[in-house]
Amino acid sequence: MKDVTQDTILVHAGRDPRNNHGIINPPVYHCSTVLFPTLDALEEGDRNMLSSVHYGRMGTPTTFAFEEAAAELEGGYKSVNTGSGLTAIAIALSAFTKAGDHVLITDSVYSPTRRFARETLAPYGVEVEYYDPCIGAGISALLRPNTSVVFLESPGSLTFEVQDVPAIAAAAKKAGATVMIDNTWATPLFFRPFDHGVDVSIHAATKYMVGHADAMLGVVTCRDEATWTAVKKAATRFGICGGPDDLYLGLRGLRTLAVRMRQHQESALALADWLATRPEVTRVLHPARPDFPGHALWKRDFTGSSGLFSIVIDQVPRKALAAMLDGMELFGMGYSWGGFESLILPTRPAAVRSATRWTDPGQVLRLHAGLESADDLIRDLDAGFRRMAAAL
């Protein structure tokens, strides 16, 4: 579709009612074996297995509908689906690395990405180096002739550093490295990686794309055909594919992504502004707030913010923290985010850093603002702080 907004793309991409008996949503294809009527058809399918209905895990009409919608929304060439966000990260990194390569990964990266690098890439002979997320064009000093990938995540997990993506991408491309970004926080609605020099955009579609905390899904979108072919071949080698029902839920979730993200953004900012007035809170880590160190970069490159941010509170005894968190009525404690429900999670950024140091002595709490009333969420947090104070 040309000359339409992303809101409209979300509603129409990846579906074709005219070729599906007039049915609006693509059906769920549960499939392993695909039958070919002739030897010619079988051999033609073998030649085009990466992009045709050839075998269940290679893709079905349900698969291709989700991938088409994701690629069109992101403005990329094509997408590859996976069974989770971590699998999407692993497949993307595997597609562009080999023994003897050097890879640069932001120090603020999602912890499972770091674990994959340490426990899989490194034992297979890939040297992994972490860099300061605020390095910008200074990353040139770290690039080597064998640097194959520069991996970004902006804002970063837990502490939300905003990276200078265009500067990092320009330096990396000049050195011949493939530039990847985990774009889950912003979604394609609020950040357009390919407009800033990125080659591969990765999403834990489990989160905002699915949006309902009921499916595991990942997606990798590529700038061009060569990049997509490399990722698709990597997924094929490992037998990676999303389940048909999860793909359907991902496609359904995309239809309401725009309206949900607007609400997540509005509620998160309301919570962040209120939390900034609390005496218990020493810092609010939200890129869209003017007092955040990376706000200027966020304002330059992003068109919005999501529901995920962190706060730092005064260090308190564990019993006081438990009194606050255990009694929350609307904020659940659990991993993941991006669903309709609000979440709160204590985190320890210092434990997952190597190139930089997290020295703030306070307790970091990561919050996800769901789709509940912001006023109700504020009342829940206020009651939590009162329980914490009573337990001191």
Automatic annotation (TrEMBL):
The modification N6-(pyridoxal phosphate)lysine is found at K207. One of its GO terms (molecular function) is pyridoxal phosphate binding. Keywords: Lyase, Pyridoxal phosphate. It comes from the Bacteria. It catalyses: L,L-cystathionine + H2O = L-homocysteine + pyruvate + NH4(+). It comes from Azospirillum lipoferum (strain 4B). This is Cystathionine beta-lyase. PANTHER family: CYSTATHIONINE BETA-LYASE-RELATED (PTHR43500:SF1). The keyword Amino-acid biosynthesis does not apply. Its cofactor is pyridoxal 5'-phosphate. InterPro entries: Cys/Met-Metab_PyrdxlP-dep_enz, Cys_b_lyase_bac, PyrdxlP-dep_Trfase, PyrdxlP-dep_Trfase_major, PyrdxlP-dep_Trfase_small. Its EC number is 4.4.1.8. The gene is metC. It is an enzyme of class 4 (lyase). It holds the Pfam family Cys_Met_Meta_PP.
